[in-house]
Amino acid sequence: MIDEIIKKFDGAFAENTIRAYRSDFIQFELWCRSKGKEPIPTDAETLAQYVDEMSLTLKSATIRRRIASLCSIFKLSRNPDPTNDPEVILALKRMHRRIGRAQEQAAPLTRDILEQMLATCDGSLIGQRNRVMLLLGYETMRRRSEICDFKFEDVTILPNKQTAIRLNFSKTDQYGEGKVIPISRELYDTILNWKESIAATDGYILRRINRHGQVGDHLSPSSISKLLKEIQQQAFQHIERELSGHSFRVGAALDLLNDGYGLEKIMLRGGWRTESTALRYLRTWSEI
Question: Any idea where the Core-binding (CB) domain is (predicted)?
Fold first, then answer.
């Protein structure tokens, strides 16, 4: 069922969005089958029950995302959409009163932590790749999938001699208007050295490397968090909070704030469109 629906979305949404839609619908479908119900079409009573049961084991952010995914699937497949029915809204309110709305924020990867992690990156291919990943993630403040999508041909020197990298697509730019992000000369040179080390002419900057030291195709977004945790363990004996893919954005935003940059500048650098979203990243950590 979901394959036929998702096929219509192909090319209209980012791959990560389609992947999330598929996963969230499959979870709903499995739940419906266990209750002897059909996932499409569905009704408000069924969705409200789904929310109530999810609130027993899942976080509120996950539940809200699943309902939002179902809303999009129902609407775009021209099926009845009961997600805004009062019964479902009340179920969401019950959920928030029971488990709250708070979303756990990623631990910030600030400049001081970055420097200590960079110190663990040796001259091996893995060490060079990890150095590029750390600097690229921190300086561009991009999401995991966007970091992995950067290509060597995106790196450039602007007419004013500023080194930069072009972001072709992002979560908030689904139609490829593009954005040029300034990067340091250190990162620019690090990328060129990495390119020479792996004898690349073009293609993705971040690559997989197997245990035999063989360089593969581009790194998957899911690998970013895993690599960060591995480097973090090498750099620190004691770890209170593990880093994740969003740690780049949180840490760099905090550093900008502490350096006196205004919220508008931070939003532009991080690609946030609303103040509420940017503040959600900053509020948890700025007072610690």
Answer: 1-78
pTM of the model: 0.72
Superfamily of chain region 2-99 = Tyrosine recombinase, N-terminal domain (1.10.150.130)
Q: How far apart are CA 33 and CA 132, in angstroms?
A: 46
Task: Quick: pLDDT tens for 9-22.
Answer: 776 777 778 888 88
- Residue 250 · residue 277 · CB < 8 Å: no
Q: How far apart, in whole angstroms, are the C-alpha atoms of residue 232 and residue 235?
A: 5
* pLDDT tens-digit series, residues 80-107: 999 999 999 999 999 999 888 765 667 8
What is the CATH number that goes with domain 111-286?
1.10.443.10
Per DSSP, helices labelled H in 164-245 are: 185-197, 221-235
In the chain, % helix, strand, coil (3-state, to 5) comes to: 55, 10, 35
What are the backbone dihedrals phi and psi of residue 101, each rounded to the nearest 5 degrees, phi first?
-105, -10
Q: How far apart are the first and last CA of the chain?
A: 48
Torsion, Cα of 38, 44, 45, 48 (10° steps) = 100
